[in-house]
Amino acid sequence: MHRSTRLLPYLLLLMAYAVAKLAYAAAETNDVLGLLAPTNKLVELLLASTSQFVVGHGYVHPVLGIVIDKSCAGGNFGLLSGLLLSAAYLHGRGPRPAVALPLLLLLSYLLTLLVNAARIAGAVRLGQLLPPALTPAWLHEAQGALVYLFFLVAAYASLRWLLARRFSAW
Q1: Which among 98, 86, 95 is positioned nearest to 167, based on CA atoms?
Q2: Within 13 Å and on the Cβ side, how many CA atoms surround 126?
Q3: DSSP single-letter state for residue 94
Q4: pTM (two decimals)
Q5: Euclidean distance between CA atoms 41 and 157, whole angstroms
Q6: Transmembrane region positions (predicted)?
């Protein structure tokens, strides 16, 4: 197979990622309710909290003192996990990519909801355990980055393991 033919699916994947990334960057809180609403429901369950949606702001949790808005939606993680899983699947030459890739995107969406809710709940609990002087914004961001990195690596390793067990091409 010619090299450019082999690279075409990856280029299309990167183009789709770039378009989605630009669209997400331009989105407002009200535009990402498909991520925010289910994430908020999971956070409510995990933290036994209630919230109210405020248009233009997000889900306000008055007792916890937090707002779940676009910056908490996990959209960048979702896009990156979709790209990573799709590229890994293509690289592993898994069977029937036309069926598998949409399923991997659905999986990355569900993973985004679960990981993001766990990240938010963890940040809230960490903030409750530590004295206020030890919970600056950088700690919240570092915790989020570590959680996201861990789950990206875990998702990639899991997909590789599943494909290796199922198809010996890896």
Answers
A1: 95
A2: 17
A3: -
A4: 0.89
A5: 28
A6: 73-92, 99-122, 142-163
List, as own/partner pairs, every contact residues 54-58 make where C-beta atoms lie below 8 angstroms and the sequence separation is at least 24, other chains included. Answer: 55/30, 56/28, 56/29, 56/30, 57/29, 58/29
109/41 Cα distance (integer angstroms): 15
pLDDT digits (tens, 9 = 90+) for 39-95: 999 999 999 999 999 999 999 999 999 999 999 999 999 999 999 999 999 988 778
Tokens of 14: 């990167």
Taking the C-alpha atoms of residue 81 and residue 105, their distance in angstroms, rounded to an integer, is 8
Helix axes 75-91, 137-166, angle to 10 degrees: 20
**Domain spans, the chain:** 3-166
Query: Residue 93's pLDDT is what?
Result: 78
Cα distance between residue 49 and residue 129, in whole Å: 17
Q: How far is CA 55 from CA 6, 9, 43, 59, 149, in A?
A: 46, 39, 19, 9, 31
